[in-house]
Amino acid sequence: MFRPALLALALLAPALPAAAQLALPGVRLPPVPPAGDAIGRTLDQTTETLRETADQLLDLRQARIDRLLRRERDSVEADARGAPARRGELLLLDPDAATLEAAKAVGFALITRDRLGALGLEVARLQLPRGVKLAAAEALLSKAAPEAEIAPDNIYFESGAALAAWAAASASADAIATTVGMIDGAPGKGAAVAAQRGFARGAPYASDHGSAVASLLARAGVRRVLAADVYGKDPAGGNALAIARALDWLAGSGAKVATISLVGPNNAVLAKAIAGASRAGLVVVAAVGNDGPAAPPSYPASYPGVVAVTAVDGRARPLIEAGRALHLDYAAPGADIRAATRSGRNKSVRGTSFATPLVAARLAAALDAGGDWRARLDREAEDLGPRGADKQYGRGLLCRSCGK
Fold first, then answer.
1. Rounded distance, CA 307 to CA 288, Å?
2. Of 84, 78, 70, nearest to 136 (Cα)?
3. What residues does 120 pair with on adjacent strands?
4. In 189-256, where do the E strands start and end?
5. Of residues 365 and 3, more confidently modeled
6. How confident is the model at residue 223 (pLDDT cuts 50, 70, 90)?
C-alpha cells in the first residue's frame, strides 16, 4: 500500500544537513546510495503501486457491470457503449409527432410519455421491436429519426461501500432550514424525513445505502429531507428516467439542494434533467464514485453546474479508490465515519457516497445564510494539497469533523 509519510520522508532526505549523518565508533555503516537514486526508486515504486491499484479498480468496475448483466438478464442489457440499461426500451427527449410516427414505422411502440413540468422536459419510453437488441435498436431509431435525441435508460450504481447506522444528529450541529432532497434508495428505521416517494417498482423500499445518506444529512444538521427512492425492488432500478422523475419531484416540492450518490455514464435524458433542475433553482451535489482515477468520468458529477464531491479519510488523505469527474469542487470525509443501516444500527462507512451528503448539508447551510453560496463554501473549505483548486481536493475540504 502507498504510504504518503514514506514518500514525504524520501523527498525530505536531500534537505537534511550533513551533521545528521552519524558516525559511530567501531561501526562500519553500509554505503548510502545517492539520495537522487533512492528518491527515484521510491517514486517509481509508488507510481507502479498506484497504477496497479487503478487497474484493479477498473477490473472491479467491469466485474460489477458484468455481474449485473448476468444476474438481471431479463431486465438489463448493455447499450452500444457496453453500459448497463433497462432491457427492451429506449427514451426519446421532447419528441414531436413526426418523430413518434417515424419510430412506429420501424417497429417501436410507445409505452409512456412523461411530462416533467418542473424541469421543462418530456420523455417518451419506447418498446423495442421484437428480437432487436438495444445497441442495434439505437442505430435503427437514429436512422429512422436522425434529428431525434435518443438515449438508453442507463442504470446508475451507488457509490458507497460499507454500510452504517442511524447517527443521531449532532447536538453541536446548527439546524439547517433549507430543504435537501436525496436521490438514492429509501431510508429505513428511524429516518426523520419530511416526505419520501418511490420512482421504481416496489419503491419506497428501505436500503442500507439510502439510510446511511439520510443519517449523515441529519447528523450534519439538515432538518427537512425529501427522500426519492429510485431503486425500490426493481432489478433495473437506478435508471436515468427514474432519476429524472425524482429531480422533477424535488424541484417541484421546494428542495433547493439535491444529493446524488450514484454514478454511471453520460446520458442525454439525465443531462437534460440536470440542466432543467438547475434552471428551477435546484443545486445538485453528486459523488465522483469509487472506481479509481483511471475510470471514465462519472455522471451526474461531470455535468456543468453539478457540485462534484470526492472523499478523504480520517487523516484528510484522499481515498485511493475515489473516481473522477470532468471537474472537482470539494472533498469531505468519506471514511472513518459512522452512519446508519436500514435496521437502525450504527456502522462504519467508506466511499464518496458518504462525503456527498456532508457537502450538500454545508451548501444548504450556505443558502440559509444568503448571498453567494459558492463564495461562502470557498471561505469555509480547507485548502489542502497544492495551493488553490487541485485534482485531489478540488476547492478544499469541507465538514472535516462531520460524521464522527
1. 10
2. 78
3. none
4. 195-198, 225-229
5. 365
6. very high
pLDDT for position 44 = 54
Assess whether 143 and 205 both reside in one domain.
no
pLDDT in tens, 247-285: 999 999 999 999 999 999 999 999 999 999 999 999 999
176 SS3 class: strand
DSSP for 2-13? --HHHHHHHHHG
| pLDDT above 90 for 163 | no
- How high is the pLDDT of residue 1? 38
For residues 171 and 91, the model is more confident at 91
Residue type present at position 270: L
Please give the biggest Cα pair distance in the chain: 94
402 vs 299, higher pLDDT: 299
Asked if residue 332 and residue 207 are part of one domain, the reply reads yes
Residue with cell 497544492: 386
Say yes or no: 374 and 252 in one domain: yes
What one-letter code names the amino acid at 57? L
Grid coordinates of 187: 431510508
What is the Cα 307 distance to its own chain's centre?
10
- Which of 108, 125, 154 is a domain's end point? 154
Strand-pair partners of 157: 263
What residue has cell string 461531470? 302
| Same structural domain, 296 and 266 | yes
Q: Classify the C-alpha dihedral 270-350-214-361 as positive or negative.
A: negative
Rounded to 5 degrees, what angle do the CA atoms 374, 380, 381 make? 90
- Grid cell, residue 231, equals 431503486
* pTM across the whole model: 0.85
pLDDT tens across 94-114, in order?
999 999 999 999 999 999 999
| Whether the Cβ atoms of residue 257 and residue 224 lie closer than 8 Å to each other | no
231 three-class SS: coil
Q: Give one DSSP letter per residue of 266-279, joined into a string.
A: --HHHHHHHHHHHH
234 and 195 part of one domain: yes
Rounded distance, CA 404 to CA 401, Å?
A: 6
C-alpha cell of 59? 477490473
